Amino acid sequence: MTDITNNTDNKDAKGNNQSIFGKQYKWDELYFYQKSDVIYQLSFAFCNRFIHLYKDRTRDQIIQAARSCKQNIVEGLADGVTSTEMQLKLLNVARASLKELREDFEDYLKSRHLQMYMPGDSRYNVMVDYCRWHNKLIDYEPYFLQWTDEQMCNYALTLCHFIDKMMMSFLKTLEREFITEGGIKERMHKARTGYRQKQDEKLKQLEAECSRLEQALKEARTEAEKWKTAYNDLKQRALKAYYSQQEEIKRLKEKLGEGEG
User: Is the pLDDT of residue 154 over 50?
Assistant: First the structure.
């Protein structure tokens, strides 16, 4: 049975993998959380029906162990956003509570000489198959007032087995994520270093562009000076030609004036 591990993507607002926060898993979509909710409600219903409110302290222990499992899953996954260490600790607390709960249900069966369903028993096969493919409270709640104490204990033990197995698989996933992505301190360092590197790269690009523009400006000024020199030279030659023509015109006029006289 494959667990659901939907989560928010570990990216910043611009889509870069530089977020310092860990993945936020949607615990209510995780199968082992859904089953932990079932085991808590089943444990509560079981205690109300079969364990005396005042004469047996096991009642409170069962309910608290079941609640601890469920609540520590929620808290652990929430804390995982900023602390991988706290996440792992709380999930292990949830597993420890689950093992305590399993021991209480086993003791109930043993102390009352009730049967624990074993492989090969038709009831065992039906029970395991049902618990494997059903995760939500709505799938189990109608049976809480129908099952015998023996049935409720066996279904609780099977759910405990599946929850523990799924949580171990999930912890392996967290282990791989920690190895590849590190904890929050490493992500903070990586994000800050990445930001500084981008700023340094941008500064280098701007400096290179500024240098290129300065060179282009220098070349443009040199070219402008060439054009200015060429213009002044052309202007002087044009003026010289103009004045020379004016002198020639004047001489011609004077010659014409003498001829008429």
Answer: yes
